[in-house]
Write a structure and sequence with these properties.
globular, mainly beta, 12 strands, two-stranded antiparallel ribbon
Length: 138
């Protein structure tokens, strides 16, 4: 029997991002909670990232929500749940779009190093939220 982790398809509203015109990228982290049956539930939270000179600032945490269809994707274990990012070049169109835009985040296995990653779509355009490479120690 193959061991897996179940990750929900989720949605995100760019209208929730403060100062959308100043954002440089969106970063995502996994949030772990328990459901009513005591099972672990892994969802995403977003942090807008702004750059001031050479300094990065993370904005306030924005929760993603389960997609209305309740779809769950199973990924094989072992698997790393690391930070993910969407660079500005990938989200520019979405940041400028109408306020009622909803993005769909669908999990997939990032093949280079067994990370959970997400395909992000507005229904016509897609981008990938991929693992952030580890930074240099400070």
């Amino acid at each position: 029997m193959t061991k897996t982790i179940k990750l929900p398809v989720q949605t995100f509203e760019p209208a929730l991002i403060p100062n959308r015109d100043k954002i440089h990228k969106l970063m995502f982290q996994f949030d772990v909670d328990e459901n009513a049956e005591g099972q672990k539930v892994f969802t995403l939270v977003a942090y807008p990232a702004y750059k001031k000179g050479k300094t990065w600032e993370a904005g306030k945490r924005i929760l993603l929500t389960p997609h209305k269809d309740g779809e769950i994707i199973e990924l094989p274990l072992p698997l790393t749940l690391g930070n993910l990012e969407l660079p500005r070049k990938d989200i520019e169109k979405w940041l400028k779009s109408k306020d009622n835009l909803i993005l769909k985040f669908t999990p997939y296995l990032y093949p280079k190093n067994q990370h959970a990653a997400y395909t992000v779509s507005d229904g016509t355009t897609t981008a990938d939220a991929n693992p952030i490479p580890p930074g240099n120690p400070t």
